[in-house]
Amino acid sequence: MSRILVPVDFSAQSIQAVRFAIAYAAHKHELTILHVIPPFPSRQVVQRLGSRSVESFQAEEATEDLKPFVALLNEAGITYRLEIVFGTPHEVIAKQATDDYAAVIMGTHGYGRMTGYLMQSVSYPIVHDAKIPVFLVSEESDASRFPWRKVLIAVDGSDQAMAAAKTAIELSEGMDVSYTLLTVVTPPVAYTGIYGVGWQDTGSLEEWGRDTLKPYEDMLKEKQVSFESKVLIGDPAMLIKETAKEEDAGLIVLGHHGLGGIAGTLVGSVTFKTIHRTQTPLLIVKSE
Q1: Edge-to-edge order in the sheet of strand 103-107
Q2: Which of the four, 121, 170, 231, 237, has the lowest number of CB atoms within 10 Å?
Q3: Are strands 80-86 and 103-107 parallel, antiparallel or unpaired?
Q4: Are residues 108 and 205 in the same domain?
Q5: How far lies 165's CA from each of 85, 124, 154, 171, in Å?
C-alpha cells in the first residue's frame, strides 16, 4: 500500500483536497494528514509563557480545528494517520515530500503568480521544491468527479512533460481512465523568431505541434493506453484550461520546469498561469 501526503490548513481548499485524497485512496493508499503550525509571532508571549506552553495551546486548538477533516476520513473508512508538527509550513512539507510518498495532495487558493508570491502561497514553493508529484485542488473543484475519469495531459516537447505523462499513467493504474494529449503552439507573431525560418501559415504550426506530440503518442501506444491527440494554436495556459472544460477533464497534467518565485513570474510559467483560478485539479510533475 503506497502512501499519500496531504498537507492541510483550515481552509475550504484543504477540505476539498482531503475529499480528493479520500476518493483517490479508495483502500489502495494510506494517507498522512499533515498540519504544520507556524512559529508563534510574538516573542514576548513566548518568553513569558514558555515555548512549551504556547505550543501546547496551539496543538490543542489545531486538534479541535481538524475535527471536520477527521470526521470525513473516519466516515470514508480510509487508512490514515494525523501528524501535527511545528515549523515553517512550506519547509516542513517539502522536507516530508520524499520518495516515501507516491504524491502530495493539497489545496490551492489559485492566486495569480505575483499575488501568490506576495501572499506567501504555500502551494507555489511546494510545486517548486517537492521531489514527488503534486496534486493541487481548488475549492471550486467538483467533488462529485473525484478522483478522475478523464485526464488532459499538456505537453511541450520537454523531458518534464514526458515525465508528467508517464506519472499520470502510473498514478491512474487500476482506474478506468481516458486520456487526451494536448500541445499548444504559440504563434510566432507573439514571439518573433521563436520557431525560426519555416513558418508560413497555421498549417506549419499544426505540423510542428504534431511533431511535438509524436514521442508522447509513441509512449502511450507502447503502454497500450487509449488516447486522442489535439494541437491548438494560441496561449497555452488559457487553452489548457478551456480544453479541460470542453473535455470535462477531471485532471490536468503538467510538467514543471522548476522555475519558482520571481523567476517563474518573470518568464510567465505556464504552470503558474494554469494554477491561477483553474477549477480542474492539477497534477504537476517536476523532472530533475
Answers
A1: 80-86, 29-37, 2-7, 103-107, 134-137, 282-286, 251-256, 150-154, 178-185, 227-233
A2: 170
A3: unpaired
A4: no
A5: 34, 21, 8, 10
In total, the chain counts a number of residues equal to 288
Distances (CA, A) of 248 to 110, 123, 124, 237, 252: 19, 24, 25, 17, 11
Cell representation of residue 5 = 501526503
> How far is the C-alpha of 43 from the C-alpha of 24, rounded, in Å?
42
Three-state SS at 61: helix
Give the per-residue SS3 of 268-283. Answer: CCHHHHHHCCCCCCEE
Cα gap 255→251, rounded to integer Å: 13
Nearest to 122 by CA among 59, 36, 55, 63: 36
Q: What CATH code is carried by the domain that includes residue 23?
A: 3.40.50.620
Q: Which cell goes with 280?
A: 480542474
Q: Does residue 123 share a domain with residue 216?
A: no
CA nearest neighbour of 285 among 238, 239, 253, 237 = 253
The C-alpha cell that represents 178 in the structure block: 481516458
Single pTM value for the model: 0.87
Mean pLDDT, range 98-106, rounded to an integer: 94
User: pLDDT tens across 123-143, in order?
Assistant: 888 888 888 999 999 999 999
**What are the grid coordinates assigned to 264, written together?**
517563474
User: 122 is in which domain, residue-wise?
Assistant: 1-141
